[in-house]
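Ticket #4471: structure export looks truncated?
Reporter: QA, pipeline team
Priority: medium

Steps to reproduce: submit the single chain below to the structure queue and open the exported record.
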Amino acid sequence: MAGKKLTCLECGQLNRVPEDKLMAGAKCGTCGAALLPSKPVEVDPAMLAKAAQNDDLPLVADFWAPWCGPCRMMAPEFTKAAATLQGKVRLVKLNTEDHQAAGMKYGIRGIPTMVEFSGGREVKRQSGAMQERQILSWIGA
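Actual output as written to the record:
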């Protein structure tokens, strides 16, 4: 069966979605959660690692913390970018305050930092707060 592999960001189940159904409200076959939400999803390190490794769509992770002013400034811009990119790229957020080991694992030296994963590997990263148009440009949308 052809299609795109996507990890459900709620339950972790791997789903295969036919190309023509990607934008038709694709849902997880196990828990029913949207596979292509229009907003970034907060994930833990295990979910990030699984999605980065298995997903056929590019995955962009925003490493942030609630005490970080630039992170709070960028959050609504990241959300706008997620809506614009829905179906092409999935955007997720990882709270480095709650998951400090993840910051070390991914070599995060400053926040906010965005990391794009594709094909199971990191393909690029960018630190510093950005506006929606800058995020879209960086992603290549």
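Status: closed, not a bug. The export was complete when the record was re-opened. Leaving a note from the reviewer for reference: Helices lie at 45-54, 69-85, 100-105, 132-139.
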